[in-house]
Fold these 3 entries.
Entry 1:
Amino acid sequence: MNSVKVGVIGAGRIGKIHAANLLRLPRVKMIGIADLYANEALQDWADERGIPHVTKDNMEIIHNPEIDAIFICSITDTHGPLIMEAARAGKHIFCEKPVSMDIAQTQKAVDTARECGVKLQIGFNRRFDHNFKRIQAGVQAGEIGTPHIVKITSRDPNPPDEGYIKGSGGIFMDMAIHDFDMARFVCGSDVEEVFAIGTVLVNPVFAQYEDVDTAIITLKFANGAIGVIDNSRQAVYGYDQRVEVFGSKGSLAANNDFPNTVEISTADKIYRDKPLNFFLERYNEAYIEETQLFIESIQRNTDVKVNGNDGLQAELIAKAAQLSCRLGKPVKLKDVIALSQVTL
């Protein structure tokens, strides 16, 4: 297979994770990394890893003729414009979620990538988790018959700080968007209607930004199944990530990942270690695999595993959840589409 030369835009935590995973892949060469706040520390970090080019100018990465593919890991407001610029420059694109917080801009970015004939993969890394992949494969193979109920629990170990909350886009666009994508992935169906309720039970600061920290979302799928997602910004016992699909012939369920499988039994109690406590631990292998498969899709000229429409659909569900939570009633995705003045 051909070597793929890559540039990364955004040198925060997630950008450095992707860069590290790219560096460990054969037939991949990291050409450069861009960040608005690039400094001597970033230059030292890049030098230690053999990344030759560090810049504050995103366009230097996008228009570098050596580079075949761009990883967009910058703040969300930049994603849409960067996708379009990179697509017009003929670069394949991996973009972290969400593409944007505006449906019309997301559609324009997705359409531009398609029209330019470049690959666009969205960073829904949970699809590559070993347990969740097994559930999706089992549903697709008919192991549990027709899906009836999808249940997803997604709770963070600790709430984010106020600075993050302020610019996050809210729990539905920032946190639950992963669960919306997972629901479509394991059920094998698009979502038609959303009903969401939310409240502030963890930290009053969420209310200051018209956000919630605790939510329940119900979904109606096009294939007739129904779904329920529960979200919390704080689970004191660790990172709580569980999925179940119940169907006409049985169920497929994935529990949390733990540091080990040891169960301790004494006269007083039976217990085990808490679940893995951070998303980087829980989904480390998933991050590696999503990067590897994106690169392979370029080398083999195959379809990406999570495409632009997947990103758009998750955002539509998130927008519907935001609107539903505010109005206190179910919202159909077709109405969100109409309000966004887009044609899908």
Note: The two ends are 35 Å apart (CA to CA).
Entry 2:
Amino acid sequence: MTIAKRGRPPKQARCFDDTKQALLLTGMAILTERGFNTVGIDYILKRVGVPKGSFYHYFKSKDDFGLQVIAHYDQYFCAKLKRCFNSEPETPVEGIKRFIEEAVEGMQKYRFTRGCLIGNFGQEMPILAEAFKQPLADCLQHWTALLSATLKQAQDLGQIATEIDCQEQAEFFWIGWEGAILSAKVMQSDVPMRKFATVFLARLT
């Protein structure tokens, strides 16, 4: 009979996908709080517990990492929008309200230290590489398309005014919402977000 040796169990090496996922998720969390240009790679690696030399096994450069974080965040955020918007299929506007409420609760949870990752990158655009411009614009286009479709659904159900231009209102929402999030961080209060949401929803009727 073989007797098991005492002591700690052997460490299991992370596979490529696990480590890369951990870096991307940590990057998302950090970059909703801090600017891309102010965050060093060492800081991210320390949070994940990955050796410094490992970073370039997963990403070609810091910019490559930033671009992949943006793509990862877009996937996450689109999934969140679909979940909220589809939560009340017979009352689409309630789905929009659910998204707004979850966003407010998220800001409160992190004491207004986190914002929108895309908005944070957008504020740094003048000092970012040109390669960031289109991916950031694509994110806003994806979100706009999802909101526009939800507004169209509400319109078809007779729940918002027929003269509403759904695409225009969706674009207006994200322009204003990003500003409301920034104001909420500055004021350390959810008031800007709630005020904008109230005005936006009132415009629909």
Note: Residues 76 and 165 are 27 Å apart (CA to CA).
Entry 3:
Amino acid sequence: MRSVRGVGTVAAGVAAVVLLTGCGGGGGDAKAEGPASVTPAPTTEAWTPEPLPTTPEPVYLEGPEGEIDKLADEKGWTYAGIYTSASAFVKDICESLPVSAVDGASRPQWLAESGNLDGDGKAILQVGVPKLCPKWTDAVKQAVSGKYDRWYTGGTYVVSSKPAMGEDEETIPPGTYQSKGKMENCYWERTSESGEIIDNNFATSARSITVTIRSSDGQFTSEGCAVWKPVK
């Protein structure tokens, strides 16, 4: 009976060893696996849109220049790209009026025929000239109204009170005109519509010449004379 108990004891010990070492079929070299690693879920940060850039408020100079520029911006007036501001455009006109085409056109005539009143130029000059060079305010008013004296240089003009019909034709209204200055070899003539000479003269030297152009005349031509200005 003792031998039987011994066998049972050994068997129980073997079973205990098996339980302790595990039941892996890979033999005694099998290793116990640790807990499986878990990849953390990516964190999502809240997206905040970047603020849109803002346009800074314009800064205007104090004085009449700033007043002109501020009004031009408020009205949406535009000017030639060669100028940095509306007041710069006005200042250039103020400086140009005394000298530009002074020997060939009246001041309002130069303003009206030089293209400076095109687009918003008329509005800008009507506001700006009285502020920066009030001396030329009347010239601007006359140019805007279209009622101003026209001066005439050499060339052939069709006698008419109406504006020219084409770019290749220039007109001169009937009236009395005077040319002053040091003139040498000045020739002028009045002709009929058919080109026949009505009156003419050639002055080798003169200081002042006056000519009356009739409404019945066809053309008026002059060469080598000074500027013809209407006599009032």
Note: The CA atoms of residues 10 and 219 lie 148 Å apart.
